[in-house]
Amino acid sequence: MKIIIILLNSILLFGAELFSQNSMDNIITEVEKNNTTLSALRKNADAERIGNKTGLYLKNPEFAFNYLWGSPENIGNRTDISVLQSFDFPSAYVYRSQIAEFQNEQVELEYQKQRKLIFMQTRLVCNDLIYQNALKSELLKRITNAQNITNSYKSKYEIGDAGILEYNKAQVNLLNLTKDAESIEIERDVLLSELKSLNGGIFIEFTDSVFQLQTISTDFEQWYIQAEQNNPVLQWLKQEITISQKQEKLNTALGLPEFHAGYMSEDVVGQQFQGITIGLSIPLLENKNAVKYAKAKSIAIQSAEYDTKLKFYNNLKALHAKSISLQNSINDYRTNLQLLNNFILLQKALDKGELSLAEYIYELSLSYESFNKLLELDRNLNNTIVELNKYQ
User: Fold this and answer.
1) What is the side-by-side order of every strand in the sheet holding 62-68?
2) What confidence score (pLDDT) does residue 284 get?
3) Residue 7: what pLDDT?
4) Residue 124: CATH number of its domain
5) Residue 103, class by beta-carbon neighbours within 10 Å (0-12 exposed, 13-18 middle, 19+ buried)?
6) Does residue 272 lie within any of the structural domains?
7) Residue 228 in contact with residue 309, Cβ under 8 Å?
8) Cβ contact 92:250 at 8 Å
9) Can you give the residue range of the structural domain that contains 322?
């Protein structure tokens, strides 16, 4: 029978954890669909992608028409028509197109970064709600117990088996627990409002009271490789380095002669000239230091990438170590609390008169405080893991 009960408890616990996970996943899905910030970011990203594709093509053709009056009048008038098209050095168009593609990838990476941060914020709010829901559920049990104690001492007081002081202590204990429950309800309302805001102003209920079962890989270095690949900030910097290198080549190409070609005609009295025109523009001062600037910028971005990667690594390593420590602390705390659970013993001692009501309330408060600390550790662990996995 004991084995069956243990198995049933395990199944119920696993089911609660699975339900909690699915519920949070559903909320993330709703937030992705309804979040107004994400909607604005998506539209802005689409606009940026179009903007990055501008300026890639040939310059506008030039058309000129000249009508000149001759003097003296007997030489007649003159009409000139010209159509010209300018061309950068051919490789410049290749590099501009490549830069635009990399910039569009950066736009998507920036959107993904903001998207993941909003999801992280949503998960943190959900974790706080799980914490408050668990406290609320526990307090309802405590209030029920306190109400029973109060009713019992009221009956004892009425028949003279208990004094007014004992009865008042029972009432004060019930009052304190009731006010704690009201405070928790206020916190829940604030968190639900925040969740509503994240969900685009659409209210969404979240009643889960069991934290997800967390597993943390002890091999940090192997885990970090995957985390680094999924970090849009680092990927954005890699793209920025590539863009800067392409910009060096583009500036070099723009330092080469610019060509123009077209058609020209000249019409005077009794004569007409027409044909093609070809020319080039030799850059001397316009792009001075452009290549040198692009090279210096590439070096600066590479330095920024190294600095960002180092900070990211150290931050994740600290969060990973914190998660492992919290997990070990929780497992140890939970095991000892289960062994030292005195609730039934305290109730028996109170019923038999071995404990005064004040002693009972004090001893019970120690158990309550331990439960609250364990629940807070659970929340800290889950919040740390959410931050640890924010780019996963």
Assistant:
1) 62-68, 78-87, 258-268, 271-281
2) 65
3) 34
4) 1.20.1600.10
5) middle
6) no
7) yes
8) yes
9) 17-62+91-258+289-388
